[in-house]
Amino acid sequence: MPDVEITSEMIKSAVSRRLIEAVPAAAGRVYKEPQHQNINGDAFYIQQRRVSQSPQFMKLLTRRYEMIIRYEPDIEAGRQLEKCTDMGSLLMFELRAIDPGNGVLIRGNDMSYEIVDNVALVYVTYPVRMLVDLESQTFMNELTINREV
Fold it and tell me: What is the SS3 assignment for 128?
């Protein structure tokens, strides 16, 4: 388990680094937000879909970061469906494990991809187990109800 808290920004950065290692042509074409201007060439967008957490045992909890990696192939180059299929398969293989920068590998699960309107949408969930200090949590004080009116 990591000694520091893993944040969604750390997950996004780790996915971005792994993506550029797997697809060197992606360098300079990875964005965290959809771009509204015209982009020539392929583009990748990394977005957080949802974060959830659940207690496991005593001080242990699991936080799950659900990510979407969106691949938009260059429209001018043609073969969008073929490129999306190839990229979806490649990303599912390459994003199986990421390093958020602290030397701990986080393994992706619940991986899938779909192609919608010639755009590949790759879904990956990264579960992070962490210890929580229960002493530092704030609990509600006891309340009393005054029935006098």
Answer: strand
The Cα–Cα gap between 46 and 89 comes to 17
pLDDT tens, N- to C-terminus, the chain (149 residues): 555 678 889 999 999 999 999 999 888 889 887 665 667 788 899 999 999 988 877 778 889 999 999 999 987 767 889 999 999 999 999 999 999 987 889 999 999 999 999 999 999 999 998 877 655 555 566 766 777 65
Domain boundaries along the sequence of the chain: 8-33+41-132
Question: Into which CATH architecture does domain 8-33+41-132 fall?
Answer: 2-Layer Sandwich (3.30)
pTM of the model: 0.80
Give the helix ranges, DSSP H, for the chain.
8-22, 80-94
CB 10 within 8 A of CB 126: no
